[in-house]
Amino acid sequence: xxxxxxxxxxxxxxxxxxxxxxxxxxxxxxxxxxxxxxxxxxxxxxxxxxxxxxxxxxxxxxxxxxxxxxxxxxxxxxxxxxxxxxxxxxxxxxxxxxxxxxxxxxxxxxxxxxxxxxxxxxxxxxxxxxxxxxxxxxxxxxxxxxxxxxxxxxxxxxxxxxxxxxxxxxxxxxxxxxxxxxxxxxxxxxxxxxxxxxxxxxxxxxxxxxxxxxxxxxxxxxxxxxxxxxxxxxxxxxxxxxxxxxxxxxxxxxxxxxxxxxxxxxxxxxxxxxxxxxxxxxxxxxxxxxxxxxxxx
Length: 297
Description:
Elements: H1 2-28, E1 50-56, E2 59-66, E3 76-79, H2 93-96, E4 102-105, H3 122-136, E5 141-146, H4 148-159, E6 164-170, H5 187-203, H6 210-223, H7 229-233, E7 238-244, H8 252-261, E8 266-270, H9 277-280, H10 282-293
Parallel strand pairs: 3-4, 3-5, 5-6, 6-7, 7-8
Antiparallel strand pairs: 1-2, 2-4
């Protein structure tokens, strides 16, 4: 009997020792670094410029102007994503102001801008931007939009074709079906949502009404946008449909559909980044942005 038991005991002992050695080695090894697209870098500091508020459509719309009003390039309007604010483009402004007058906007209810009881819609937020341009005396712009901001840029190209000649549309969707389900459960996107709440509390004129803000914008996301192929085919502005290789929110086939449907639109997928490419790899994002905005095609 002893000879039957001993090998079993020895085997168990070896397994225990081996498991212990593996655990020790694992503790000594540095943790595997997250991929670039899995990291959410900090929100940049607010860009340097002249800040102001415009009274439009019953709200106070925050904007910031950077660069020279006499810059050679067409003015560029930068439009951020849902729940965010214009500070998110802090890494892009220095690259743009060399050639362009830059106008950053906090969309209604976001960042430092106020909101009223009017239901959120992309048409309404687009009209806010057009009203701001009217007050600033700017006839025509180029747009850099991220997520909701890209949707606003496309909306402006459809409904106000005389006001925009180029749209760099990063991380957009033109139908609600273009969104991935349960995106809020993605770890990177969940970190963004948590951060956005804290930034809203810090920046908003109504810091204690985040729940109301979220309910309003959530209703818009559930129902908008839902543009037809004919509407997209009517866009006259030059458009670049861009996205990150690992976008947490937008389906790749939808991104490809937009580029294939909008006349003359380009398609660009930035490698090793996600919905937050402008934070994760600013140099790559900026190079693509400038190449499109300042191109001659």
